[in-house]
Structure formats: C-alpha cells, structure tokens
C-alpha cells in the first residue's frame, strides 16, 4: 500500500510496539513524502495519518499541528544529514574550511535538501511559517555553526578574519550559490562534485595570502 508515495508494509498479527523516537521517525518520514509529493498546502494531517499507518491521536499527540510537523522535519533533516563540528586544534584553517565547505555543499545540493528547498520556495508566499522554519532551523543554523568555526580559527591564531559572520556568508555564496540555483531549476548540467571541489581549492588559494598566517597549509 502506498500513500503520498510512502509505502506502508503491514505485517500480519499485532504490530510491534514502537518507542517514542521510532514513532516520531515514522511519522516524519511519511510527512516528508507527503509534503514533497503533494505540497505543503495540499497536505493535511489526515494524509500523514494514513501515510504513516498510525492513529490520528498518536500523530496529533506527537506534533499537534502541521506547522509543528514541518518544523520538526527541518530539524531532523539538519541533524541527520550534516555535522558541522569544531575543528581539532592542530588542523590548519584551509584544511578545516575546505572540509566544512565540501560537507556543507554536499548537504545543501543533495536531492533531499533540494526538494525541501524547492517546496519552501513554492509555498512561502501562502505559508510564510515554512520560510521562517526553514530559515531558523536551516539557513541560520548552518551560518551560525560556520561562523562559530571561523571564530574558533580566529581565536587560535589560524585565521585572520575581522568579520567571521560576513566571511561565512561569502564562503557559502561563492561555493553553493550558483550550484543551488541550477539544481532548483533542474538545469540539465549542474556543477559536478569535482568542479565544486576545484572551486573550493581556488577560493582557498585566494584567501591564503590575506586571511591565513604564513599561507597555512594547502588542503589535500
């Protein structure tokens, strides 16, 4: 049985008891499929109830509203798909930045994230709460994490950036901006992973003379 493109496999007999986390995960997986396939406005809580195969009481007890469900979905995507950790003390700044930009671009340009971004853009005029949730739990989260890492590099003498927050925005825009636009409009030939890695290397070569003490060490 498939609802919203989400397959429900019912096993004979009494269903196995799920933990609270397992129930939430199953509801969120069904909600993601419904939102992406039908759109936010066209998806109703009853659709999610049918797609996840649980009772309406269980779904409402876990999330309460469709907006809460979407906010939880964005939070789950952010924490499932990307880890932006503080660098080790002995890592040169360019190695750290290259790794962060590579992981961040792979996340932002993944099919899953592009689908959610496209959903938010298409629905934001009629459902501004989506744009707010996406900004607060997605865009702002990534920028704050990257700013924190750049500030740490500053504090440990590995980077000389007067405005880490502004540098974070410039780095993300330079590496991800064009590729995200081509992905959103389904352009036939988006930038490849190899091309993005080459762009990261080129960007770092421009940064080293002015932002990294002693030119740092070239990222592998």
Automatic annotation (TrEMBL):
PROSITE patterns (alphabetical): HTH_TETR_2
One Pfam family here: TetR_C_7
Coiled-coil residue spans: none
Domain HTH tetR-type: 21-81
Alphabetized GO MF terms: DNA-binding transcription factor activity; transcription cis-regulatory region binding
InterPro entries linked: Homeodomain-like_sf, HTH-type_TetR-like_transc_reg, HTH_TetR, Tet_transcr_reg_TetR-rel_C_sf, TetR_C_Proteobacteria
Keyword line: DNA-binding, Transcription, Transcription regulation
Name used for this protein in its record: TetR/AcrR family transcriptional regulator
Lineage, top ranks: Bacteria, Pseudomonadati, Pseudomonadota, Alphaproteobacteria, Hyphomicrobiales
């Amino acid at each position: 049985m498939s609802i919203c493109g989400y397959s429900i496999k019912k096993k004979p007999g009494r269903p196995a008891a799920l933990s609270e986390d397992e129930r939430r995960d199953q509801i969120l997986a069904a909600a993601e499929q419904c939102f992406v396939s039908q759109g936010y406005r066209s998806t109703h809580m009853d659709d999610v109830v049918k797609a996840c195969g649980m009772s309406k009481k269980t779904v409402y007890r876990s999330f309460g509203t469709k907006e809460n469900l979407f906010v939880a979905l964005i939070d789950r995507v952010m924490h499932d798909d990307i880890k932006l950790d503080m660098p080790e003390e002995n890592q040169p700044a360019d190695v750290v930045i290259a790794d962060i930009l590579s992981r961040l671009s792979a996340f932002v340009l993944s099919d899953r994230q592009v689908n959610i971004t496209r959903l938010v853009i298409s629905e934001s005029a009629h459902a501004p709460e989506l744009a707010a949730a996406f900004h607060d739990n997605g865009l702002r989260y990534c920028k704050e994490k990257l700013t924190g890492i750049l500030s740490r590099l500053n504090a440990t003498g590995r980077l000389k950036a007067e405005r880490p927050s502004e540098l974070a925005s410039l780095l993300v825009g330079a590496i991800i901006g064009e590729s995200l636009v081509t992905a959103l409009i389904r352009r036939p030939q988006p930038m490849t992973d190899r091309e993005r890695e080459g762009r990261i290397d080129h960007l770092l070569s421009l940064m080293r003379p002015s932002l990294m003490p002693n030119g740092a060490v070239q990222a592998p």
